[in-house]
Amino acid sequence: MKKQDNVVILDHVLIKHKIAILRDEKTSMKQFRELVEEITTLMIYESLKDGVPTVEIEVKTPLETCMQSVVKDDSIVVIPILRAGLGMVNGVHVLFPTAKVGHIGMYRNEETLEPITYYCKLPDGIEDKLVLVLDPMLATGGSACDAIELLKQRGCKNIKFMAIIGAPEGILRVAEAHPDVKIYVSTLDRELNENGYILPGLGDAGDRLFGTK
Ligand code: PRP
Ligand code: URA
Predict the structure, then answer these.
(1) Rounded to an integer, what distance in angstroms lies between the CA atom of residue 34 and that of residue 28?
(2) Fewer Cβ atoms within 10 A, N terminus or C terminus of the chain?
(3) Is the C-beta atom of 173 inside 6 A of ligand 1?
(4) What is the pLDDT of residues 2-32, one digit of tens each?
């Protein structure tokens, strides 16, 4: 895949281990859901090393007082793309329990593969927050592009996109459409099939999370 400055493929050995189990068609719905949460927590830990707003506070140890930087309360908003992005939210809350959650509902038209937006509810004051857009699957990139565009129209300036599995064509599409948005993908897969599914992928993430189909 052509290198893009705003794309990070995490390729972390521990995340890849969990993704191997996630892909397996025999993995149960319960285990799939738990893995998506665990992978998301690892992704956040790995990708936000120095990208989180902090404040300095005074801490009194048993020996003396010192200044320490802590994560700024209420500085992060999480936006899952429904449905599958919902599976990642708890994985973020493990690390940022006070993060508010906005929802963008989208599904792909099965013929055109273009996304259709059916729901949007965002927290007030989102413009100045670090906005983490979550979707486990980045396939053609249509859903990610439209979700990011919608957030920009609402004034968001600091957006990061997180996907567990990405296809080269989708990653490139989002990276080129939104060069100011950092895109984190845990693992890069080979290609899309004729129905817009990622290969080898894991199938339909929403169905596997929620037991539909
Ligand atoms: C899946 C997935 C992404 C989208 C990715 O959602 O969760 O949102 O497809 O595909 P794209 O990159 O080609 O846009 P889907 O449309 O299946 O809806 P669902 O999560 O409700 O099942
Ligand atoms: N959405 C999914 O859930 N899986 C894919 O492979 C592509 C889009």
Answers:
(1) 10
(2) C
(3) no
(4) 788 999 999 999 999 999 999 999 999 999 9
- What residues act catalytically? 108, 112, 204, 207
Angle of helix 29-47 versus helix 86-93 axis, rounded to 10: 50
Mean pLDDT of 49-60: 93
**What separation in Å is there between the alpha carbon of 118 and the centre of ligand 1?**
13
Please report which confidence band the pLDDT of residue 50 belongs to, taking 50, 70 and 90 as the band edges: confident
Counting ligands in written order, which one lies closest to the CA of residue 83? 1
Pick the closest to residue 162 from 136, 128, 143, 181 (CA basis).
Answer: 136
Does the pLDDT of residue 73 top 80, yes or no? no
Q: Nearest C-alpha to atom 2 of ligand 1 is from which residue?
A: 137
In this structure, what token pair is assigned to residue 107?
A: 């599904």
